[in-house]
Amino acid sequence: MVHFKPKIQNSWGKSFLTSVLGTTISILLTFGTSALVESREKANTQRQTAMMVIHDIDKCIDQMEEMAKNEEERNNAVQYILAHLDQITSLPEDTLKLAINMLADYDGNHTIFDNAKENIFKSSQDIWSNLDNMAFIDNMEKFYRERKEIESIILKSPIFTNPITFDEWSQILIDSKANNYSIDYAAFLKEKLKDRKVQFYIDYSTARSRLYRSYAQYWRDYSDRNKFIMNISDEELAVYIKNSQRSGSSASKRDLMGKWERKENGYSSQYYEFLENDSICIKHVVQITHPVYNNNIILTYGYGGKWSLKDDTLLMVYSPNQIDVKLDTSHITYRPEMRDSVRRYIRELNIELGKESLRKSIERGSRDTFPVTTNKAHDKIEMVESSSGDEVETHYLKRVKDS
């Protein structure tokens, strides 16, 4: 008997199998690619989070080192005054003020550290879902716990509590009205140095600076350990810090040319004029207030130099030979009985001394570099200024119209 097998259409079968296989591969590739992208995003989030909080540790290290430095400088001034107490009336006022800075609470501030990054680290579900390195998490929690403990000690312990309180210092300023708002720092300090509470605080100055430096070292160890755990190099962290501090677009030399204004506060403005011949003119205008007169004295000092731009970094080289200082008192008014006080105050401003001080300052630091970016309209500039450690200050300049 002959059996007949039905023929399968080869073209249809191959097409069907190819379609199924292609769909399967497509699905696998889609899910595989999606998983790969998700894995990379998670790894990137981990590193960004790690660098954010490691940088937070480093900022606290710099803060503690700065507190130790300030403590030592002020204690040196106090010890010098104590050694020359019989000559206190002839000691430099800067030395006396430095000593008072150690003893007085000027602002009544009740926080020391910025806990914004800690709050993000502890409260963000995205961070906790992406961070899976328990050694790193434990290390960060230990750091934040220690930071809270030392902050509590500094704010509550009598060893760290300024003996001249905020309210007391405020009353001293109020009482100075009787003397045309002038304070006899020598007499004030000579009297205060007899106070047992002041003496107690001075005696513990070395202990305070040692504690600040000790915690700075503890936290430096945490930072190094976290960098090791997460395999983050100092160079990678530096790039992260640089990128996190900047915004806007790259600026060209043509974008910068013209006149720009930077308002530093309500009474001070700085002007930069970038010229085509690579020269720069800088003018600083300060409005000086004082209770003995109305309106403001206008102090203007300017100087020149050269400027250049390379890789989004602005370099300004100043010339100490191009300094001009002017004092405008034409806007102030005062009561007749205050005339002598006003004249004495104006004399104390001493324009020539200020000019010489500026010249020496420029000679000591004759150049500045600032990373710069600009907005899309090219009418604003962001300048990033570095200070101690990784601390930065960001300034925004606005183009002066018709410049």
Walk me through this protein's architecture:
The chain is 53% helix and 20% strand. With 403 residues, it is α+β, with helices and mostly antiparallel strands. The protein has an eight-stranded antiparallel barrel with strand order 2-3-4-5-6-7-8-9. The termini are far apart.
Which key features would you list for this structure?
13 helices, flat, alpha+beta, single chain, 403 residues, 8-stranded antiparallel β-barrel, 9 strands
Low-confidence stretches: 35-39
Mean pLDDT reading: 83
Compressed to H and E, one letter per element, the order equals HHHHHHHHHHEHEEEEEHHEEE
What is the radius of gyration? 32 Å
Please list the strands of the largest sheet in the order they lie side by side.
2-3-4-5-6-7-8-9
Q: Kindly state the number of beta strands.
A: 9
User: Could you estimate the helical fraction of the residues in percent?
Assistant: 40-55%
Largest sheet: 8 strands, antiparallel, barrel
Morphology call: flat
Question: DSSP strand (E) fraction?
Answer: 15-25%
Distance between the amino and carboxyl termini = 106 Å
